[in-house]
Amino acid sequence: LLWICSRADALELVAVTTIPGNVEGGKVLRNAVGAMRFFDCGPNATIGLGEGEAHRQSDGFMGQDGLNGLAGSLPPVELPKEETRDAAGVILEAIDRYGDDLVLISVGPLTNLAAVERRRPGTLGRVRDLLIMGGAIAGGNVRPYAEFNFWYDAPSAKFALAGVAHAVLFALDITNQLCFSENYTALMVREAPRPQS
Asked: Does the global pTM surpass 0.85?
């Protein structure tokens, strides 16, 4: 999300959906919306919350707040229920509206994508690109050979991937080499537009 916000000149953020994962669902949603507001990104993006609560214990990789201690730097967010929609519905609406112009980027468990495929099989195949951060080749981060996003909801990962002919996977091995450094994070925070009061 932070990378997309930093590229507002090249990308249009049309929707963000969240699910419980490293922290409970409401906290993930507040972090995402807080980051969007902090970086003045995606002001018209539709927000969706996936169903369910954490069904696996997190490894604590992202800290207690889900952002390695940075959540306190974000503006406070209290979302009225009417602003938060069903994640699968938000994704389906975006696919219907943008079709093959849409790129879906998943950086968490594939729960919401699997929900889309369950509701309307074959729909994920209509997007231009499906980019997924998940899986591992040489070793995992929650088990010797398991990466968190696929491990957390393995049935959804299997179901979502079985429903598409083409997806680009960014396995843990790649993401570990291309880390979002503290220096880059500090630079983004310094250069972030400040929301108007």
From this structure: no
**Dihedral angle over CA of 62, 4, 192, 71, nearest 10:** -20
In terms of Cα–Cα distance, which of 108, 116, 71 is closest to 90?
116
The answer to whether 134 touches 167, Cβ cutoff 8 Å, is: no
CA–CA separation, 92 and 63 (whole Å): 31
CA gap 90, 104 in Å, rounded = 12
Task: Output 20 or 107, whichever has higher pLDDT.
Answer: 107
Q: How far apart are CA 121 and CA 171, in angstroms?
A: 25
Beta strands in the chain (DSSP E): 15-18, 46-49, 85-86, 103-106, 129-133, 168-170
Distance CA(116)–CA(124), nearest Å, equals 7
**Length reported for the chain:** 197
Distance, CA of 79 to CA of 181 (rounded, Å): 30
Reported as a pLDDT band with limits 50, 70 and 90, residue 33 is: confident
